[in-house]
Amino acid sequence: MDAIWKPGVHKTGIMGGTFDPIHNGHLALADNAYYQLKLDQILFLPARIPPHKQNRPEGATSSQRLHMTRLAISDYPYFSLDQEEMNRDGVSYTKDTLLRLKNSEPETEFFFIIGADSLMSFDTWYHPEIICSCCHLVAAIRDDIPLKILQRKAEELRTRFQASVFLLDIPKMDISSTRLRDFRKHGKSIRPYVPAAVADYIEENDIYGGHGQNEQL
Length: 217
Ligand code: ATP
Ligand code: MG
Prior knowledge:
Layout: E1 11-17, H1 24-36, E2 41-46, H2 62-73, E3 79-81, H3 84-87, H4 94-104, E4 109-115, H5 116-120, H6 128-134, E5 135-140, H7 147-161, E6 165-168, H8 177-185, H9 196-204
Parallel strand pairs: 1-2, 1-4, 2-3, 4-5, 5-6
The site of adenosine-5'-triphosphate (ATP) has 18 residues, from helix 1, strand 4, helix 5 and helix 8.
């Protein structure tokens, strides 16, 4: 773990997700990781077809999710977009992404940034041991998963996969893309939860079946 504090080592965070839509919870998570772990940059990697969401209900198109991600990160000079998963055919596996990044930059330390729900299900992912050999895991509290449970899970992953796990201390953000899609479906505003440019884009393109603002208040 000492390696991450070595001077001169380039540290890149990876923020993967469906981003359907990207929201302030994603941005806050990434920004907190950036500052707390003193990262050099963070790559946002919208997934094309995540393995656990192959049968997801109607959402935004891939190009819309890509565009919303680009809009959302544009104010952060140390955030950038990696379109590799979007360009790849078929299911996107995190382990392939991590192997690609690690092979292209063997000297870089990678930090895979996830929420607590992802940490809790991490051992069901495809080849968690390969993911752990390529990067550190950085997990933040989410929903009502108690810190004690997260600490226990982190310990289990350290033992099973020799994982290097950091638990991030961030303010809890009670927000998810599922809730935002639901808000839109019921005509509620999502503006407080996403960057203004993303809200404008969603409204202009009538994404997620919004039928006007606040009609059910
Ligand atoms: P959905 O409801 O469609 O699953 P989501 O809000 O969970 O969307 P994802 O794209 O699935 O967003 O999440 C990408 C990553 O961001 C995951 O690791 C998830 O745990 C994390 N994340 C998303 N929202 C938050 C939040 N509010 N607080 C902490 N982590 C979050
Ligand atoms: Mg999710």
